[in-house]
Amino acid sequence: MGSHHSIHLHHHVSKQADTKHKKYVETYLPVLIILVLIIVLFGSYNFLNIREINTTIGTNTPEFSLPPVEGELSGLNSGDFKGQVSLISVFASWCDECQENHTFLLELSQQQLLPVYGLNYKDSPQDVRLWLDRHGNPYKKIGADMNGDVAANWGVYGLPEIFVINANGQVIYRHMGSINAERFNRDILPLITKNGRQDEHIYPPEYK
Fold first, then answer.
1. How far is residue 97's CA from residue 159's CA, in Å, rounded to a whole number?
2. Alpha helix locations (H) across 57-95?
3. Which residues are CB-contacts of 104 (< 8 A; sequence separation ≥ 6)?
4. How many CA atoms lie less than 13 Å away from 191 in the CB half-sphere?
5. Of 131, 205, 206, 119, which Cα lies nearest the Cα of 161?
6. What is the tens place of the pLDDT at every residue in 155-166?
7. pTM of the predicted protein model
8. How far is residue 96 from each of residues 92, 101, 131, 142, 148, measured CA to CA in Å?
9. Rounded to whole angstroms, what are the CA distances from 104 to 2, 67, 167?
10. Model confidence at 205, in pLDDT bands (50, 70, 90)?
11. What are residue 116's DSSP bridge partners?
12. Which partner for 88 in 63, 121, 163, 193 could form a disulfide, CB atoms 3.0-4.6 Å apart?
């Protein structure tokens, strides 16, 4: 009797353990799979971004001509960048991070270290006008890229994005995301202090 009871109890405990293990797997396995997929997708996205930046540096800017945004007299075209080191900001009124970037660009434009141009991406004329009136306009010229074709030709993935163009119209610096004084002084200022020398391409440190 004692032996039979012991075998029955062991079977019951084993069954409980199997049930607990099954519930554990059913609960946490999907979470683990999702986490792995997120890591893989994030890594792939970063890899593609790095590759895109590296292939963009040193290339000529695409030829384009854009109309002005509402309320501005002049649009933007690829000839505006010739003969000087220029900074181009790709932005939109609906982009939250663009506001952080915009604050620094206002300070930069007041210093007049280099001309700052704007590429307004898939924005409504009314929204971008209200946004500029509310936050200020740091741009020498702004092009209205209503359908996003010009930004796509530049290889833009997300907003905001910064390009620096040399006097020959080549991309010599590119940064995805907002920019601040520290990054500007470290990465972009050397382009200006070298009087526009075009023999060096400057990559953001994380892409070297």
1. 7
2. none
3. 178, 179, 180, 181, 184
4. 27
5. 119
6. 998 899 999 999
7. 0.70
8. 9, 9, 12, 19, 18
9. 82, 25, 23
10. very low
11. 87
12. 163
Confidence of residue 14 (pLDDT cuts 50, 70, 90): low
Q: Over 60: is that where the pLDDT of 102 sits?
A: yes
Can you read off the two tokens belonging to residue 58? 């040193």
Give the Å distances, CA to CA, from 176 to 73, 106, 127, 162, 206.
Answer: 29, 18, 23, 6, 11
Cis geometry, peptide bond prior to residue 160 (ω within 30 degrees of 0): yes
Structure tokens at 122: 């898939």
Mean per-residue pLDDT over the chain, rounded:
79
- Measured CA to CA, the distance from residue 143 to residue 119 in angstroms comes to 5
91 near 120, Cβ under 8 Å?
yes
Q: What percent of the chain has pLDDT over 90?
A: 51
